[in-house]
């Protein structure tokens, strides 16, 4: 399928405008290169990330037999960073036409991924100071609640009435409600009225 405008192949000026638009929309991560398939040279570059120049060899011998749309495929940029690319053949009435290449640099995404992995790493975490947390009854309740939720393959946000009742029974058996104010805390966490919570506790006794 050819890329056409009003029934005719696109002019180079239109192709370069498309290149500028795509590069502007996805700045600073996208470069668009327009290759002249007849001369084998780069005809246009928008948001130059590859440090090539207009008139440089386009390496079109590597694109022999290129389909109308090829990709996405992966390539390595000058800085060693990965790029994901698509190449689009733009035929012309005369000559071999152009190859429109969109190159998406993965650098920002890779940096963000590495930063998240570093931030979320547990290797630098230290054990909780016993002196500070030995009486942290809220955390103990949180642990009991989410252990039950995990064991029952559900999540806190979707618990139905029967599941909440079963969870309260479990917490009662573990002595959670022996701690002052714990019932108020559990009712808030479970999104349950205090009267309903006390009713379940009473039925469990």
From TrEMBL:
Ranges where the YheO-like domain occurs: 12-114
Signal peptide coordinates: none
What are the Transcriptional regulator DauR-like HTH domain coordinates in residue numbering?
141-202
Query: Known InterPro entries for this protein?
Result: DauR-like (IPR039446), DauR-like_HTH (IPR039445), YheO (IPR013559)
> Which named protein is this?
Uncharacterized protein
Natural source organism: Candidatus Pantoea multigeneris
């Amino acid at each position: 399928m050819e890329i056409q405008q009003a029934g005719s192949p696109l002019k180079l000026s239109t192709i370069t405008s498309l290149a500028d638009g795509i590069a502007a929309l996805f700045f600073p991560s996208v470069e668009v290169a327009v290759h002249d398939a007849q001369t084998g040279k780069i005809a246009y570059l928008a948001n130059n990330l590859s440090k090539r120049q207009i008139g440089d060899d386009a390496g079109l011998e590597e694109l022999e037999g290129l389909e109308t749309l090829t990709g996405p495929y992966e390539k390595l940029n000058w800085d060693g960073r990965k790029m994901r690319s698509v190449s689009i053949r733009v035929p012309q009435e005369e000559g071999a036409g152009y190859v429109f290449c969109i190159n998406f640099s993965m650098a920002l995404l890779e940096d963000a991924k590495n930063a998240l992995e570093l931030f979320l790493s547990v290797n630098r975490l230290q054990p909780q100071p016993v002196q500070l947390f030995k009486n942290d009854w809220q955390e103990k309740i949180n642990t009991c609640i989410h252990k039950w939720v995990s064991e029952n393959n559900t999540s806190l946000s979707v618990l139905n009435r029967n599941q909440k009742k079963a969870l309260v029974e479990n917490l009662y058996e573990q002595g959670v409600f022996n701690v002052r104010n714990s019932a108020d805390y559990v009712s808030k966490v479970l999104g349950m009225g205090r009267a309903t919570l006390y009713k379940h506790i009473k039925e469990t006794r």
